[in-house]
């Protein structure tokens, strides 16, 4: 009986060991960046657009690849070692990614529209603004949530003209933006995320309800 149980458990044990082992993959990194969402509250970050293998689809990749420096306008093919991080923090990555070898780094056209990786979404903008971090910010509800709550949104929405006393429903899009003046800085520091207004869905004159108390 013990022998039978051992034989049944052996594939599971071996599978568990394999998951903890490092592996190496060949990735292609696109010459432009997309946008990845931040899981805790509003905000987005510039992120690599990668293809993990020659037959894979392009996807967004928000983590750091240690040893790799991104260069706008250049497609990179690299060997990436993937290591499991033991006992990662609750809000931290479970894997570490390290470039083992640069196989190819050449000027290239973007193979896929970066905006495909900058998803649009709807928000509700309150009828009054708030002062946070010494600047005016919108109160916004992210309507993707099941129970959206008002949260401060301290970024400009390009193309949006706010008038106090009106509550707005908007469709916006975060877009990765390159700043050539900051090209001397490393990787992510020369990229930011801007927010574009895609559609003004509604505008209603009213006082928004349930706004957080200002201290």
Walk me through the structure.
This protein has 215 residues and is mainly β. It is built from one helix and twelve strands, in the order H-E-E-E-E-E-E-E-E-E-E-E-E. The protein has a six-stranded mixed sheet, with no helix packed on it. A six-stranded mixed sheet has the order 9-8-7-11-12-10, with no helix packed on it. A hairpin with a 2-residue loop joins strand 7 and strand 8. The longest helix has 19 residues. The radius of gyration is 22 Å and the shape is elongated.
Topology:
Elements: H1 2-20, E1 23-37, E2 44-52, E3 58-61, E4 65-66, E5 74-84, E6 95-107, E7 121-132, E8 135-142, E9 151-153, E10 157-158, E11 166-178, E12 191-205
Parallel strand pairs: 4-6, 10-12
Antiparallel strand pairs: 1-2, 1-5, 2-3, 5-6, 7-8, 7-11, 8-9, 11-12
Instruction: Detail the poorly predicted runs.
Output: 1-18
Order of helices and strands: HEEEEEEEEEEEE
What is Rg?
Answer: 22 Å
**Helical run tally:** 1
